[in-house]
Amino acid sequence: MGGDLRRNHFGYVVVSTRDPSKRSIFRQPMEFQEVHKYLSVHLLVLPHFPLTFTVKQVVLPKLRAQYAALTLSHQFRPYFNRIQLRLLIEKGRYLSDAKKDELCRLFYKVVEAIKAKANYAKNRYPWLIFDRYNPSNVPKQPSPKNRPKTVETAPQSPQNVILHTKSGVGGVSIAFSNFRKICQAIFQLAFFLSLLAPFLFPLFLPYVYHHQPACSPLKQTYALKSRLLFGLLPPFSKIHSCEAIAMLRSWILLLILLANAHASYFSHELDYDVDPCDEFHLHVCRNANKKNFGRDLKTTMEEKFSDEALEIVIHLKDPILDLIGDIVKNRGNEDLEDCYEAGLTSIGHALALGKIKDFTVTCAKGECELEDDSEKFSYALRKRLRRQKHRKREDDGPKEERWSEVSNAFVKKTITDYLQYVDPNERLADPLVTYPADAAEPEEWEIINMKDAWEDLDYHDKDFKEDLHEILFKSEVFSPYFNLVYSRFLIDKGGYLPEAKKQELVRLFQKTKEAIKAKANNSPVLSNKAKEEVVKKMNAAELHMGVPNGFLNRTEVDRHIQRYRKHLKRFNTKEKCSLEFLAREINLVRNQIIFEADGNRLNPLSVENFEETIHEHNAYFNGDVFFLPAYIYPFKEPISLGLTYGILVHTMAHELFHGLGLQPMDDLKELQKTRHYADTKICYREYYKSMCTLDDRAVKCPTDGLKDDEGFCDIEGARITYELLKSEFQSNSNQLKGLVDVSEVQRKSGYNELQWFFVGMGMQNCQIESDRHWFKEYKDDPHPRPTIRTIATIMQMWEFTDAFNCRKDQNMYYEKLCEVFPESKQRKEYPKKTAKFRPADRIAGKTAVTNIFKEPDQATLNSAYLPVVAMGSWLMLS
Fold first, then answer.
1. In the chain, what are the domains?
2. How many whole angstroms separate alpha carbon 239 and alpha carbon 392?
C-alpha cells in the first residue's frame, strides 16, 4: 500500500461546505461528518503526500501530508528514522517554522469547525459519537428499538453532486454521481466491521498495539519526539489504542470512499457579487490571486510537471552535463553579458549559431529561404509555416533568384555566411534563394541570451545539481540537445503522461477534428470543393500529443545525441565565455543536422534556427498541432467532463481552426472566395474592433483587423466544443439536470457541466491588472487581451445565454453572430439586447461594464466560495 499512496489519491477528504438542512451529500450525511471529525483530529502529517480539505469557509492551505495515524506499516519506517529526519531538518528540506505555525493555526480552525459539525451530529446519531481522549465514555451502541424515533430525513441530493474541497494555493473539487446505492452498502459494511474492530485492530497494527493494555498510550516509534513524529500536530502527540479501535469504522468508510475519489491541485473562487450575465470575466476572476492568477495557474500546472520530472532527471548521467558542471566549476558562467555578442560577425553567422530570432534561414533540396520576422509581436507565436503559404499583400510576395544573381546585398551576405558554417563541405552550390522583396538589415539585432540564473550557479553549493537541472530543463540555448536527452530519459522512466491517458486525449482530438469536418460538410453555404478543402486541411494536421512525434523514434534520437557528443568531445571548458560558446556549438550542430536532412527535423515545432524547450506549458499550431508535455500532464489527474472540454478540448478546437483562419491561404482558395466567408471575415473584424477599453477614461480600441483571426479561433472552437460536450450527455440526460437559474446557482454554490465549461474557459484568462494595462500590453498582439477574451467569446454564443438564463438587459447576452459554417443560408434572427454593452456603446465608452471595472477589489468578504476546477471522477472515460 505504501508504494501506491500517491497514485491512488489516498488521503483526500471530502467535506460538505453547505447548510445540511438545504443540501445533503449522502443519505446519512452526519455519519460522514463523523468520519471527518475523527480523521481530522487524528491526522499524522508526513512531508511527502498532498492533502487538502475545507469545512464551511475555513481553508486549510495545501499540505504535503498523508493520513497515516493508524497505518505505520513497514513501508513507512524510513520516514521515521531519526538520522534521516535530523539530516533533512538540518538541510532545511522541510517547511519553515513560520510556515508550519501558520498551517497549524489554520488547521486548528478547521478542527474547531469540524467539532461544531460534530455537535450537530451528536444530537441526531448519539450512538456514533466517541469523546476525544476519553475512551471509557464511549457509549454502547443502542439497539434499534432504543434509538431515537425522531430522526430527520436527509434532504435529497442532486443526481450529479459536486463536493467542494479547496485550499488557498492549490485546492480541490471532487465530483461524484450516483452515490445512493454505494453509500447504503458502505454503511452496512462499515457497521458490520466496526463490531469486529477489537479483533481486527491488533492484526492491522501489531507493532503499535504490541502487548499494551487496551487503552494505554502508544509508544513513541523509534523514540522520536512528538514534534518530529507528528510534524504539524504537536498537541496530538499520543493516540489511545481503544480510541483507535473506535475509529476503525471511520477508516473503513474513508478507504472505500478514497477508492472512488480523485483530486487535484487547482483552486479558485468565483465572485458572487458579480452576476455572470453582467460581467463574466469579473465573476470568474475578481476573487483570484491578486498577484496574477493567469500566470499563477500556468505556473502551477507547469511547476507540477517540472517538480516531478526533476525528481527523475536528477539521476541523469550525461557527458555534456558534466561539461557544463566543469564550466561552472571553473567560473565560466560569470560575466556572461560580456560573452553574448562576442565573435558574432554577421546575421548569417549568428543564425547558424542559433542566436537570432528576427530572421530565419532554411536550406534544403537546392533551395534557401530567408524569412523576415523583424516586425515581431510581444509573444512567441508559431506562424512561420502559415506565412510561407500566404502574404498579406501581393506586393509583399517573395522574390526568387539564384544565389549568384541575388541583387539584395544583405540577403546575399546572410545566406553566404550562414552556409559557411552550416555547409562547410559546400554541398549546396548556387542554390535558389527565396526572400522578401523588402528584406533589409535591421539597425539592431535581438540576440538570444542566457537567463540570469546561470550566473547564480555555485558549483560548491549542496543543491548545485538540482539547480543546474532546473535551469537546463527549460533552457532555450541548450534545448537542441537537452530536449533529446531529457525526453529520452523521462520516456524510459515513465515521467510523462501515462500512455492510457495520452491515448484518451488523442481520442478527444480526433473527435474534435471529425466534428469540424462534419460541421463544414453540413453547411449549405459551402461548395463541394470548399468542403473538400476543409476536410483535406483537417486530415493533414498531424497531432503531437506530448513530446514531438520525432522524439519517439529511439534510433534517431540516439543518433542525434551521439552526434552532439562526438562534436563536443574535446571542448575546452576552461576558456573565458566557455558556457556561451558551448551553447553556440550545440545550436550549430542542430542546424547542420537539419541541413544534412534536407530540412527534416525531429522537432517540427521549432522551424527557426534556434530551438525552444519542449517542457514549457503551451499548445501550438504550425500546420501540425502540438500539446506539449507540461500542458497535458495535469490531466493525469481526474477532471470533470465540463472542465475537460472547457479547458483542454476547447484548446484543441482553437488550434485546429488556425488551419481554417481568416488570413489568405493557398490551400483554402475555394473556401475563402465564397461570399459567406468574406462576410464572416468582415463580421469578425468589426466585432473585435469594437472591444474597446472598459474604464471611464479616453476610449481606445484595437487595431482594425489585428484581433479577428485569434478571435475567430476562440469562438468557432468554443461552439464546436460545446456541441461535443452536449453530445456526451445525450445518453444520460440526468447529468444535465440541476442548476439553471443563476440565483439558484449562487445559493447552492454549484454549476452543471455545461456551466462548468464556460467557467473553465474563463479561468484561463484571469489576469488581475486593469483592462487598460492589458490593452497596452496586447496592443500589437493578435490575441484579444485577457480582460476581454472570454467576454468576446461568450457574447458570440447563444449557448452561454441559454446556460445561464441571461436577459436582454444584461451585458453578456449574445449579439449578432459571426459564423463561418452556418447550418442555414438564412441569417439567424437574434433579439436586440438592451444592455449598454453593444458595439456602438463599447466604441463610445458608455457601457454598464465600466462601473463594474472601476473598483475590482471591493468584493465582499462574505461571498460564497466556489473552486473553479472541479476535479471529479474521470467522466470522459465513461
1. 2-259 (no CATH), 298-340+449-497+546-632 (no CATH), 347-436 (no CATH), 639-857 (3.40.390.10)
2. 74
| Amino acid making up residue 358 | D
Q: How far is residue 374 from each of residues 188, 412, 444, measured CA to CA in Å?
A: 71, 18, 10
pLDDT in tens, 650-704: 999 999 999 998 989 989 999 999 999 999 999 999 999 999 998 888 999 999 9
Pairing mode of beta strands 172-177, 367-372? unpaired
Residues 276/812, Cβ–Cβ less than 8 Å:
yes
Find out whether 89 and 96 touch, Cβ atoms under 8 Å: no
Question: Helix 554-567 and helix 578-596: axis angle, to 10°?
Answer: 130
Measured torsion, CA atoms of residues 595, 596, 598, 601, in degrees rounded to the nearest 10 = -80
- Give me Rg for the CA atoms of the chain: 31
- Give the pLDDT of residue 303: 79
The percent of residues in the chain predicted with pLDDT above 70, rounded, is 61
Give the Cα separation of 498 and 295 in Å (integer): 26
Phi, psi angles (nearest 5°) of residue 797: -125, 110
DSSP states of 605-657 as a string? T--SSS---TTSS-EEESSSEEE-HHHHGGGGS---HHHIIIIIIHHHHHHHH
Cβ-based neighbour number of residue 636 at 10 Å: 19
Q: What is the 8-class DSSP label of residue 77?
A: G
Q: Which residues contact 593 (CB under 8 A, 6 or more apart)?
A: 560, 563, 601
Task: Give helix 753-763 / helix 650-657 axis angle, nearest 10°.
Answer: 60
Longest Cα pair distance anywhere in the chain, in angstroms? 104
List C-alpha distances in Å: 283 to 37, 687, 794, 837.
Answer: 33, 23, 13, 16
C-alpha cell read off for 381: 507565436
> Which residues, including other chains, have CB under 8 Å from residue 560's CB and lie 6 or more apart?
484, 593, 602
Name the grid cell of 750.
454549484
Cα 686–chain centre separation: 32
Question: SS3 for 245?
Answer: helix
What are the grid coordinates assigned to 201, written together? 485492530
Buried b (16+ CB within 10 A) or exposed e, 683-719: bbbebbbbbbbbbeeeeeebeebbbbbbbbbbbbbbb
Q: Which three cell numbers stand for residue 683?
A: 463580421
Mean pLDDT of the chain: 71
Run of H or E residues at 359:
strand 359-364
As a whole number of angstroms, the distance between CA 867 and CA 52 comes to 13
Q: CB pairs under 8 A, 24+ apart, for 150-159?
A: 151/124, 152/124, 154/24, 154/26, 154/27, 154/28, 154/29, 155/20, 155/21, 155/22, 155/23, 155/24, 156/24, 157/23, 157/24, 157/25, 157/26, 158/737, 158/738, 158/750, 159/734, 159/735, 159/737, 159/738
The DSSP annotation for 729-783 comes to TTT-GGGG-S--SHHHHHHHT---HHHHHHHHHHHTT---S-HHHHHHHTTT-SS
Q: Which residue from 480, 479, 477, 482 is spatially nearest to 339, judged by alpha carbons?
A: 477
Residue with cell 472505500: 256
Torsion 180-183-189-194 (CA) sign = negative
DSSP 43-62: ----SSSEE--EETTEE---
Q: Which residue has the cell 558551448?
A: 582
d(CA 382, CA 610): 13
What averages of pLDDT result for each successive group of 10 residues across the chain (878 residues)? 29 31 31 34 34 30 32 40 54 66 70 64 44 37 37 31 28 34 52 51 41 35 29 34 39 35 47 89 76 59 85 94 95 89 92 92 92 54 35 60 93 95 92 91 83 89 93 93 97 94 95 97 94 96 95 97 96 93 97 94 92 92 93 83 90 96 91 93 96 90 94 97 90 48 43 87 83 92 94 96 94 94 83 89 86 54 33 31
